[in-house]
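Below is how a single chain appears once it has passed through the pipeline. First comes the sequence as given, then the structure the pipeline wrote out for it. We keep one example in the README because the format questions we get most often are answered faster by looking than by reading.
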Amino acid sequence: MKCTDLMARLAKQSPLYQPGVFWQEASKDMLQDMAEEGLASFRKLSSSLSFFVPTYGYPGNALSNETMQSWQAWLEDQDLPAKQHTYLSQLLSGYSAALADYRTLAASEYASNAQPDLMRFSESQVGDPVEQFEIEGKYYSRSALNYLTGLSFLKKHIDFKQIKTVMEIGGGFGTLGEILYKTLPETRYIDIDIPPTLCCSSYYLQQVIGEGAVTRFDDTANNEQIEIEQLKQASVLPSWQIEKLQGKIDLFVNFISFQEMEPDIVQNYLNHVTRLQADWILLRNMREGKQLRTQHRFGVDKPIFSEDYARMLSDYDLIETNVIPFGFKTVDGFHSEIMLFKRKGAAS
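Resulting structure:
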């Protein structure tokens, strides 16, 4: 099924499964780019880099393209010693910020003997990435290091031997599925998302894991029910199919995408997470909420705040929150916060 066909199906679904106002705008740019360029190089498309392929450098550093080009041109014109040139170049590219997150991961993993060994991971080059860095012989993007540091935080609370099925809503281009495949190969991964993003994650995971190991939206389109135990190692399913899922998940993850949705959409998804009896819920959310659409082209009508999750997850206890070192604090004082919830009555 083509992405354009999925978009047509999406338009017929309940508003709870359609994109919120943020992604309604973002999807327009993404669809145009993908139609013109295809998926083979989706990680370097300007719309991807702006919306679901996070970067340490431009545009994730919030500097304008004109500013970046001006500074890079200035740097190339300077007759600087090699050390100074490299230092400034790494600041502009985002390598220095990536290295800081890598050091957080390495320090956390050094202090832990628990599995999985996250330092084994190295990211693929599927999608022709331009936002990726090589560090100590392995490859990392901001997406990868976001998840890796979050999972390292999670290891301090749970035994991953008990985690057999992980579900994510809004999985970007499939990074978490790749990490699980490479560090916990016995774990089943389910990504629930909207097109056109899920078209990229489906393509990505098929390239990384293998087509035969990925359940695609075509495979379940006509199912009245989708049994979790019958899914393949990785699955990429459209948002409206979450209603068909039957069974149990052990861990639910959402990193950043809930903050880009309206509260009623998030509440509906979390109702299904509760229905599927997730023992643990790992979230990363902007504590102060996403920017408003009235202030920007891309924004939400009503932001989600960290305290909203406790209300939405009445069957869960909040175990811990963290911003530093496993989350992120912006230069203007906003907090990208990791939150861990445990289902009441779930075994430790």
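DSSP finds twelve helices and 13 strands in the chain.

See the next section for the split statistics.
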